């Protein structure tokens, strides 16, 4: 078996409009396709970000995330950036709280964490 790349990341949001704005307007992901799925009463928004795709879903009354990133399963989504300081300034301009910058002890690279509108942990990792 040979895996070529990660094709997409699926995210379920609680407020579709708020999350659509966050991912497309604030993070700058390009909208590929937006689909209303009547039978599921759900939107599916395909977004292009970097070399990957995000599928943003809205379902009626999705359950809350059970715990912080240390629970089993997906811990966080890391986004590679060229200039961490510019990205932090951009997020703070949009009133998004960003954790203090850390340095990866193995690579010496700077990184930080912030959250999407539903509390999903996102990381900015400076290349």
From TrEMBL:
Gene3D superfamilies: 2,3-Dihydroxybiphenyl 1,2-Dioxygenase, domain 1 (3.10.180.10). Transmembrane segments: none annotated. The keyword Nucleotide-binding does not apply. Residues 5-127 form the VOC domain. It comes from the Bacteria. InterPro entries: Fosfomycin_Res_Enzymes (IPR051332), Glyas_Bleomycin-R_OHBP_Dase (IPR029068), Glyas_Fos-R_dOase_dom (IPR004360), VOC_core (IPR037523), YwkD-like_dom (IPR037478). Keywords: Metal-binding. PANTHER family: FOSFOMYCIN RESISTANCE PROTEIN FOSX (PTHR36113:SF6), LYASE, PUTATIVE-RELATED-RELATED (PTHR36113). This is VOC family protein.
């Amino acid at each position: 078996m040979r895996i070529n790349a990660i094709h997409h990341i699926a995210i379920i949001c609680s407020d579709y409009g708020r999350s659509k704005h966050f991912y497309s307007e604030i993070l700058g992901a390009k909208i590929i396709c937006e689909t209303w799925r009547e039978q599921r009463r759900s939107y599916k928004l395909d977004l292009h970000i970097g070399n990957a795709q995000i599928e943003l879903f809205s379902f009626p009354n999705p359950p809350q995330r059970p715990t912080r990133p240390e629970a089993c399963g997906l811990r966080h989504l890391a986004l590679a950036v060229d200039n961490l300081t510019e990205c932090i300034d951009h997020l703070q301009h949009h009133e998004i709280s960003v954790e203090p910058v850390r340095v990866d002890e193995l690579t010496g690279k700077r990184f930080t964490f912030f959250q999407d509108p539903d509390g999903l942990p996102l990381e900015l990792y400076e290349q």
